[in-house]
Amino acid sequence: MTDSPVDPTSTDAWDRLTTLAEAFAPDLRAWFEADPERVDRMTHTAADLHVDLSKNLADDDVVAALLALAGEVRLTERRDAMLRGDHINVTEDRAVLHTALRLPRDATLQVDGQDVVADVHEVLDRVYAFAGDVRSGAWTGVTGEQIATVVNIGIGGSDLGPVMAYEALAPYADGPECRFISNIDPTDAARTLEGLDPATTLFIVSSKTFGTLETLTNARLCKAWLLDGLRSSGAIGGDDDSSSGAVAKHFVAVSTALDKVAAFGIDPANAFGFWDWVGGRYSMDSAIGTSLVVAVGPERFDEMLAGMHAMDEHFRASDLAQNVPALMGLLNVWYTNFLGAQTHAVLPYAQLLHRFPAYLQQLTMESNGKSVRWDGSPVTTDTGEVFWGEPGTNGQHAFYQLIHQGTRLIPADFIAVAEPAYPLKDAHDGQSTDVHGLFLANFFAQTKALAFGKTADEVRAEGTPEAVVPARVFEGNRPTTSIMAPALTPSVLGQLIALYEHITFTQGVVWGIDSFDQWGVELGKQLAQQVAPAVAGDAEALAEQDPSTRSLISYYLEHRS
Ligand code: F6P
């Protein structure tokens, strides 16, 4: 299904939403008072997630118009096309099948003449066997010692997902320690390798294309570090034969380009593949998650996949009026295109999710930061809001001021789990306080304050001097979605990831864009190659640069040692 996108602004629903927005006077206090059913009507369950949409700036008319918009832009048809493997990534002529990565073993899905489920499970089995060997100590380094540390080398989708999940599932980690190198700033490799013993370190080079400058450069740095270290400890000799033996024991790769893996010197037997129908930012549940499997084990990884599948099923099978990813995506459209929001905060009240906002930045912004539609025509409306966030309560003491009292509308997703990973008690003055309860009190208080604010009369009633009253008024009507789950299990993490994948998809369909390509990162990559000779001191290349770039490079050349 690669037909032309529907121009959302040409739909009846868009006209209706425009009219509603013109007369819109949200009043969450009044809405809640007048409508005792609001919270029940707007709270939905998606797998294990309890999602309260009631503090959003939307009444029944807005929700109805958004659902009508979804119908007019054919959201469900596009969703079904994605799930069955149509080439909806039009600019790259590819299927978009990250959902197939978590289909159960007994499912089948024929795409382009191939049963992709069988392929997925064949690779998963190899990853699980490898990870099992590393975890048990059956896989040893060249000296015969067990692997103590696994270092994933990758960037973007080949890094952010594994890092985020490794942090989120830290309480489940019972395998070797994992570290991650992504940035081509040599500081990253230098600091990450600090304190490691080459004899007990295993590198996973993760790159969908195996052509990414950062990753290949870091892989070479790590190879040199490994061989130098092994040579200087006498573990290997200086000859090529013992070097290649060491590389085979200390380097594995994950990629769709297995020929390039072999060319790099990694034994194809130690390479795990995936497919062009998995986008980089949608790949953490493919073999790109190998480091995570080593850390938490195949069983936990399977639980995460099952959680993702449960959310996929919710997105596939639920009526749109109860479909959480669809509703959240449509609300984002409402805020972006009708109420003027430009950013969207994601605020996890779970320290273990501290890398979740960074992960979502690639997922959402690389997917939906587009100015043309999938048929090449210009978009007809704004796309792709800026996603950002930090875990609560740190954010409260940093940027919440602007969310509460600033002039900008910032829809925010609050995420919390009931069961703490670490149930610590604070004992003082003869009392014992559950610290996680205190933490969640902040979660509940913040969404309440943002929604209902504090009126001037309420501020005055506290005895506040009149001159200071305006500064202490909270307007309220700041929209939030509250997402809660019983605990941050591997399954719940998987559900959260898939939830945001489908929110992103929903918005992309409304805007008519291909959420699965990323041409916008190419120009910078090309120019980096073109500028590199000038940076290395080539006078001719320097002269070819524009005046500002020339001046900046000259500054660098003058100041480096
Ligand atoms: O930033 C562009 C990008 O292509 C991302 O989409 C991708 O996740 C990242 O680079 C890394 O690419 P690769 O996995 O091919 O090294």
Automatic annotation (TrEMBL):
Q: Which reaction does it catalyse?
A: alpha-D-glucose 6-phosphate = beta-D-fructose 6-phosphate
Q: What is this enzyme's EC?
A: 5.3.1.9
Group of enzyme by EC:
isomerase
Q: Name one GO molecular function term.
A: isomerase activity
Cross-referenced InterPro entries: G6P_Isomerase (IPR001672), G6P_Isomerase_C (IPR023096), Phosphoglucose_isomerase_CS (IPR018189), SIS_dom_sf (IPR046348), SIS_PGI_1 (IPR035476), SIS_PGI_2 (IPR035482)
Q: Which UniProt keywords apply?
A: Cytoplasm, Gluconeogenesis, Glycolysis, Isomerase
Q: Does the keyword Isomerase apply?
A: yes
Q: Which domain of life is it from?
A: Bacteria
Intracellular or extracellular location(s): Cytoplasm
Please identify the protein, giving its name as recorded. Glucose-6-phosphate isomerase
